[in-house]
Write a structure and sequence with these properties.
Elements: E1 2-3, H1 35-45, E2 49-55, E3 59-65
Antiparallel strand pairs: 1-3, 2-3
Length: about 70
């Protein structure tokens, strides 16, 4: 999944998944800093992986890998 939002510096790619972690001032952009932390917890609960890649001013790409379960 990718967006064309504000993006972020790659050196913060792990930090953005921490609870209440924001890379920008609260008065500049909306949000509480919990969305990606919750997303990561859900994906890990299902034995999956999530990674983020970004470029400031260009956007971000999120890779989500979930296992396939045979029924």
């Amino acid at each position: 999944m990718e967006d064309n939002g504000i993006g972020f510096d790659e050196k913060f790619s792990e930090n953005i998944f921490q609870l209440f972690q924001r890379l920008n001032p609260r008065d500049s952009f909306e949000g509480t800093g919990i969305g990606l932390a919750i997303t990561k917890k859900i994906i890990e609960k299902h034995q999956g992986l999530i990674a983020a890649h970004g470029k400031e001013g260009i956007g971000a790409t999120f890779e989500i890998i979930l296992p396939v379960r045979q029924l």
